[in-house]
Description:
8% of the residues lie in helices and 52% in strands. It is mainly beta. The protein has three domains: 21-102, Immunoglobulins (Immunoglobulin-like), CATH 2.60.40.10; 108-178, Sandwich (Immunoglobulin-like); 181-265, Immunoglobulin-like, CATH 2.60.40. It has a five-stranded mixed beta sheet, with no helix packed on it. A four-stranded antiparallel beta sheet has the order 12-11-14-15, with no helix packed on it. The radius of gyration is 33 Å and the shape is elongated.
Amino acid sequence: MKTKLTILLLLLFSFQIGKSQFAINFSANQTWICLGDTTTFTSYSSPTIATSWYWDFGDGDTSNIQNPIHAYNSPGSYDVTLIASDGIDTDSLTKPFFINVDSLIVDFTFNINIDTVNFYDQSFPAYLWDWNFGDGNTSMLANPMHIYDLPPDSCYSVTLLVTHPQNCKDSITKLICITSIEELNVKNINIYPSPIINNQFKIKGEVQGLIGVVAYDILGNEVKIPILFKSENEITLATNQLKKGSYFIKLLFENGAPITKTIVVQ
């Protein structure tokens, strides 16, 4: 009897050893993504089929879908955890630093010398550059120089599209205004205060022949700035309709080239 019991226990033990345990795994269609892009996760299980899933994407978001699609909105590296069950057994798996999200900072500065503009890329990290100078011309250089054909006193929306080494893309647009030689010779025209406070600013100097004032935001959209007061040597304008930011002010004269100035509204 004792021998039979021993044999039975050995058989049961051998059965448990030979039995495959429920195990899970998962993958992603891409583990390096750009900020705001999505990645698709796929779960696997053996020897049985999982019937419930719990995903933790490492950024505070979770899902109960078998094969979820998730977007990451902050750069960094993320641990991903999957807990799954076949209704009897449960298994969990965490993959450290599984998803890597890259960000791209896009910016540029420029220096204007009459009709010639030098552009300087300030983007990081940058791999490819695509400049659109707003006049039909383009460049693929990192820091191009561009000569604008006059007539002068024109404003152009310049766009820089940058590609990240991981193929992320982003762009920025800035407004630049080309100044004529005649304008550079005009003296005694000042705008104050700078930055502007109390919803108004003054133009002081030789403004006798001034016939109009036009303002543009950095995207080239015309905005209204009412004239509150005008005298022989000074004009007061209102900025209460303007949002915070930088603006280009074009002063139009009856005789002579326009003058373009920059103001900052706080």
